[in-house]
Request: fold
Amino acid sequence: MRPRCVFLGLIMAWVVAIYLPSLLLPAVGLMPLAPGQSLPAATWALADEVAPLAKLAYAAILSTLLLGVRRLALNRIALIAADVALACIAMLAVLALLPEDWSRGFGVGLTGTRFAAGPTLVYLVGAAFSGFTFSLVEANCRSIDDQSPNR
Reply:
């Protein structure tokens, strides 16, 4: 495990987990666009509205789970599957455990209902891509490090 590669993967996974659902919610019609608002502007506004605690909670839970699975001797395909599954578990944990008052712009704080079908599916899609992104970024970073003449 290379800390630099894990950190880079976690940052990119976090970005995907926040911005992909913020793009998909208005794109599929679950969050209406304000009159004259473009999809990129709506995406940015929705991602910005997500409560800091929701963002930090996802990052903390995801980091803990992904670092834990790195201790197992899994082959590459199993590791990718585990990363995707653990990212979905992290998202479900945040959606389930974060109080409504601390969920501004996210989950129950966005819809008023915990686990509303449409938004929950969008959040899980974002989480799955987040886990996949982590796997790809970490593997790519390790590959670049392995090819470095300094090694």
